């Protein structure tokens, strides 16, 4: 079973930057979308940014202009550059890769990486 391995989280002061990386442990075929989600304590998991086939990109309104999602097609890696971080960005960030299968879609998830922004 392929796993997604995230890295790059940590503690940063408000206004700082972090870059998250996500790498699959093996080959993944039929990728339809690659993205990042986050979950803050007591809240539901929410979409941060997603890059779909055809390179369409969507960001949540709360991160537009500050975060940038990118990918390395050759290695199926996905990145999230986070600038101008705010305390409200504090959450566990999860990498997601969705593939298309005959019965629908299948999601791979990473284990999550903690991002903490201090004020």
Describe the structure.
This protein is mainly beta. The chain contains no helices and eleven strands. It has strands at residues 4-7, 10-13, 18-24, 31-39, 46-52, 57-59, 67-72, 77-82, 91-101, 104-109, 113-118. The strands form two sheets. Strands 2, 4, 5, 6, 9, 10 and 11 form a seven-stranded mixed beta sheet that branches. Strand 9 and strand 10 form a beta hairpin. The protein is globular, with a radius of gyration of 14 Å. It starts with a strand and ends with a strand. The model has no long low-confidence stretch (mean pLDDT 95).
Secondary structure elements and pairings:
Layout (H helix, E strand, L loop, with lengths): L3 E4 L2 E4 L4 E7 L6 E9 L6 E7 L4 E3 L7 E6 L4 E6 L8 E11 L2 E6 L3 E6 L1
Parallel strand pairs: 2-11
Antiparallel strand pairs: 1-3, 3-8, 4-5, 4-9, 5-6, 7-8, 9-10, 9-11
What labels would you give this structure?
4-stranded antiparallel β-sheet, 119 residues, mainly beta
Short account of what is shown:
With 119 residues, the protein is an all-beta fold. The protein has no helices and eleven strands. The strands form two sheets. Strands 2, 4, 5, 6, 9, 10 and 11 form a seven-stranded mixed sheet that branches. A four-stranded antiparallel sheet has the order 1-3-8-7, with no helix packed on it.
